[in-house]
Structure formats: structure tokens, C-alpha cells
Design brief:
The complex is a heterodimer of chains A (363) and B (288).
Chain A: H1 3-27, H2 31-52, H3 57-80, H4 86-107, H5 109-112, H6 116-121, E1 131-134, E2 137-141, H7 142-160, H8 162-170, H9 172-178, H10 182-223, H11 227-252, H12 256-274, H13 280-305, E3 310-311, H14 312-319, H15 323-335, E4 339-341, E5 346-349, H16 351-359
Antiparallel strand pairs in A: 1-2, 3-5, 4-5
Helix pairs in contact in A: 1-7, 1-10, 1-11, 2-3, 2-4, 2-10, 3-4, 3-10, 7-10, 8-9, 10-11, 10-12, 11-12, 13-16, 14-15
Chain B: H1 3-6, H2 14-25, E1 40-49, E2 52-62, E3 67-71, H3 78-85, E4 93-98, E5 110-113, H4 127-132, H5 136-139, H6 147-159, H7 175-188, E6 193-196, H8 205-220, E7 224-228, H9 235-238, E8 241-246, E9 248-254, H10 255-258, H11 261-268, H12 279-287
Parallel strand pairs in B: 3-7, 3-8, 5-6, 6-7
Antiparallel strand pairs in B: 1-2, 1-4, 8-9
Helix pairs in contact in B: 6-7
The complex binds adenosine-5'-diphosphate (ADP) and magnesium ion (MG).
Residues 49, 54, 72, 74-80 of chain B line the site of adenosine-5'-diphosphate.
Amino acid sequence: MSIALVIMITGALVGASCAIVGTFLVLRRMSMMGDAISHSVLLGIVAVFFFTGSRSPILAVLGAGAVGLLTVSLVELIYRTGRVKEDAAIGLVFPALFSIGVILVSRFPSAVHIDVDHVLYGEITFVAFDRLTLFGVDAGYRSFWLLGAMTIVNALFVLLFFKELKLATFDRGFAAALGFAPTVIHYALMALVSATTVVAFDSVGAILVVAMLIVPAAAAYLLTDRLLVMLGLAVAIGSGSAIGGYWLARWIDGSIAAAMAVVAGVVFVACFLFAPRHGLVARYVQLFTVRRAFARSLLLSHLRLHPGGVSMETIGERFLWSRRMTSNVVTAAVQDGLVTDSPARRLTLTKLGSVQAQQVPGH
Amino acid sequence: MSTVQTSDLGVIPATLVESQRRRSAAPTGDETVATGPPPVEIRDLTVAYHERPVLWDVDLTVRPGKLTAIVGPNGAGKSTLIKAALGLVPVAAGWVKIFGEPFAEQRRLVAYIPQRGSVDWDFPTDALDVVTMGRYGTLGWFRRPGKRERQIAMDKLRQVGMADFARRQISELSGGQQQRVFLARALAQEADLYFMDEPFAGVDATTERAIVELLQELRSQGKTVVAVHHDLNTVDDYFDDVALLNVRLVAYGPVDDVFTHANLHATYGGRIGFLSGGPAETSAAVAD
Ligand SMILES: Nc1ncnc2c1ncn2[C@@H]1O[C@H](COP(=O)(O)OP(=O)(O)O)[C@@H](O)[C@H]1O
Ligand SMILES: [Mg+2]
């Protein structure tokens, strides 16, 4: 298999596994928590190396999962004292845990075998040389195994508990009243976020992990009103950005992980601007349409009260419209056959216009 | 009544507490008191957030088949009372029983409408899907809602006059429509006891009338409703019983007996100026 293909598949798996759990982080407004977890898990990885001397990925995932849950619990503990807000609690906890991890890495580099750059930016180019040996037999690329397993676990979790996750995310109190243990679901989700982070981390680094957790899900959120569709779109955007990022990096000869994050960011901005219903442009058009419809109903009701006809200037003065606005509203009404513009430049309602004027609310 | 002046800031005259205790211990009213355990029985309930008590030693026994309003100023602990009954907040002392058993054993008998503002209405889902959530409890873990569940949900949407909005994204509904969706979801639970947190908050007049009719329909089916209510002017129109709450339970009983000016004063302290001229004021004056 070519190196290019290995990198692209690895990136796509990172995108998919992160997008699945990331969707729920975004919907729970917990993006910051994703950020926190993806940093503090470093401590888990380092601590496992440090105390067991083992580089086993399973142990690393478990250690990171534990520290991830520790992060979430500490944040909640601090938040529950009622002295600080949640974002402040997050800001207190994760730099502390992350910096302990960084100190361990920098103080005992030989003991932990990783360097800080690798942690932050990852080194996806190396995944093609990192093969897994099982029982003395070469079993293929390590990243495929780890990320593939993580993607499957995440997908199974979300599909198996789809109803419960949806309920606990939308209405926690109601979920609890029905007996669906939203707290357990919450911690299970956080554990998966932590595990995903560690596994993805190794290939792409902490910074891309944050991007992959949040950005594709946030973009998908703008594109649909269905949770299941949002999940699918997030996975597609995450994987697609990873693959696109690879080609971008080749083209500009830059960091692959960074290019992947950039593509995801560009997709998000495109969605933010052009999403069919929730995009900025669509909203603007909507607002414009509403304003125009309102202006038209004002015009029609005014003309209805003045059957003798009204001049364009009077209309503008009456409603404080600019010359251009007045002209636009009147021209459109004339074109739709609601208003006639007499040779004496006096506007009156047509038959159709009178009918519509009667339907204007409030008349 | 001389107690009115002394009752500022929620200091409750001893006589009032006494009469209230007697009342809650042995609910008065209909002679045909239903046999069987009461829908809600609360004893010595105390709840605290960060060591600050928000409910203090509350005793309350809700009458079956009645519409009961919980009334009190902002921050009085009304929502907390409902949440404590549903096991959603830790209880510092006391206990709650639902039809004679702890709530955890009676979940299927209880429907809940949280405050509308407590959920994120930008969540990617539609009205029908939200109402279907009312069936999740009966489904239990793992089982997916199917045709039957959606059928029930659709019926309930129709019942609240929202059938045309079934496929509408929930953020595109008005406040009143969102409240109806929540109501339909509670109806889909097909429960015997309904807890509603401010079902009338921020709804239009049409929705308010629709909700009142639904409450009356529930009552005629023998269901019990406990609702937080914020409009003192409509308490006597809409409800049979009222619980006046301000951290402590100030008074509880049939509206005609306990919805008095003195009790309101004890509940709201000096803050009931806005009442003057309203129907509650008139009825309170008569009751005095
Ligand atoms: N989760 C919470 N953490 C801390 N304080 C809370 C929490 N929920 C409510 N409170 C406080 O408890 C008091 C009672 O709240 P609540 O029951 O919501 O009152 P009500 O519904 O009567 O307006 C208020 O002072 C509120 O600020
Ligand atoms: Mg409340």
C-alpha cells in the first residue's frame, strides 16, 4: 500500500471517530470540554509510560481514559461549588493536568519516549512505518487497527444508545425522570472522547484532534435539522477534510495535520456562509424577504385607506422609506399587478391589490 | 389580619403553619376521598444547593384527581420541589412518595413537563420526534421507537392542535407551540400523575385556553396534575388546590380556603403590589 493511501485512510479514520463523539460534544455545548480532554489525556499517556514502562496502546488508552474522566469530574466538582462558572472551571483544570504531563515528558524524556512537538502536532507521516506485530506476525498498520477499532466502538455506542443519547442530550431532566441515567451516559461519552483523543493523538497530535472533534460536527449542525443526518454529515466532513488535507499538504508542501485542520475549517466557513437554511446568506435573504413582505403590506393597507391615490413621495414620507426603498417596493407591487401607477403619478390599488390588502393582518 | 405586617420576608405565623399541617395531614374537601395511597406525599422535605436551603421542611399531600397549583415568588423553590419529587436533585432530609412508593418504582405512572427554557430548542429534531420521547420510558433501554410509538405521538400532537407541525424543526415553533409539544410529550407518557413546571409561561392566549381545557380533561379522567403557576390572577379559575411556597410551605389546601390575602402576603412578602385590582385581590379580600 502506498504511503499516501495509508496516510489518507488514517486521517479519514481520525475524522470519522472524532466526528461521531464530537457531534454530541457540539450538541451539548461542550466544545471546551473536548479541548480540555484532548490536552489532559497527555498526562494519562505519560503516567502509563512512566509507571509501567509499557508502550502498549491498550494501557495508554486506559490511562488516558482515566485522566479524561478525572478532568470531567474535577471540572464538575469545581463548578458544583458554585464559586466559578463552568468554562472557568475547565480553564482551571486542564492546563494543570496538561502541564504536569508536559513536565514529565520534558524532565524524563528517556523514560517516556515522546516529545512535546509530537504531542501537539502529531506525525502522521510516520504512520506508514508503524506496523503492528501480533504473536510475532506482521499484522498491518498499527494506526488502522487502533483507529478502526475506535471508529467501530464509537459507532456502535452511538447506534446502540442512539435514543438514550438523544434524550439525555436534548432534555437531561426528562431523561433522568424516565430512568435513563443521563449521568452514566454523560461519563460514558466522556470516556469515549478521551479514548478517541488518545488514539487519534498518536497520529495527528492534540491540536488536530480538537479540530476534528468540533469542526466537522459544527459544520454538519448548520446543514441539517435531523440528528442522524448530522452524524452522517459530520463523519463525511471529518473524513473528507482529512483526505482533502492530505492533498492540500502535498500541494503546498506543508504539515499534513495542519492542512487537514485547515480544510475542515474552510468547510465550516463555507457552511456558515452558505448552508441552505441556517447559513448567513440564507438568513439574510430570509430577513430581506420578510422585510419586503412587510413593506408591501404597509403599502397595500395605506392605499386601501386612500382610494383617491397617493403619490410616491407621500408614501416614502409616511413610512420613512428611502427613495430607493419606495421605488423598489412600488415597482415590485406594480409588476405583480397589485398597484397601478397612473399617468398623474398617483398610485392606486388594482382589483387584485384590494383583495390582498384585505388579507393584511390587522385590517 | 395583624399577621400580614409581621409576615414580611417569609416569616410565617405559627397559627398558619399549624392549620396547614393539619390540612396536609388530613386532606379536606370531597367526601369521596379516593382509597389508596395519595399521588404525592412529601414529608419533612429539605433540599439545599451549596449548603443553602431552597426548600425547608416541606409537608404536602396532594389530593388525587385534582389540579394543584404551586405558587410562589421567583427562586421560591417551586421547580426544585418538582425535581425533588422526581429524584432529580439530592434531598438533604425527608422523603417523597408517589402513589405510596418511592418515585424510582413508579416512573411509568408519572409524566413530567420541565420548564420550557430548560432545554435547547435549537436541537436538530422535529415536533413529532420530541413527542415520541414521551414513549421512551415504556420502551426502556435499547428498543427503538417504531410505528406504534409515532402513531401515539401523532395522536397526542393532534390532541394539542399541533398535527400540522409534526415535521417542523422545533426552533421554528413559537413559544406557545413549543409548550404544546411538551404537553403532547407528557400526554404520550400516558401517566396518572402529571408534574408541569410553568406550563403557562410565555404562551399566547389561545394556547393558554387549550392547556386549561386539557388540564380539565385530565382531571375528568381522574388524573392528578401538579403545576407550577406564576399568574396569581388565574389560580382560582384553573386550579382546585394551591400550595403557596417560599422555601417553606406557607399554606396548602383548596384554593377557596387558602388563597387568601394573608397567605399571599406571607408568601410574597411586600412584593404583591402588582396584584391590586386583579381578581386575586378581590377574591383575597372576600376571603379575608
Ligand atoms: N442547580 C442549581 N444549583 C444551584 N442553585 C440552584 C440550582 N437550581 C436552583 N438553584 C437556586 O435554588 C433556588 C430555587 O430555585 P427554583 O426551584 O428554580 O425556584 P423557582 O422555580 O421557584 O423559581 C433559587 O435561588 C435558585 O437560584
Ligand atoms: Mg422554576
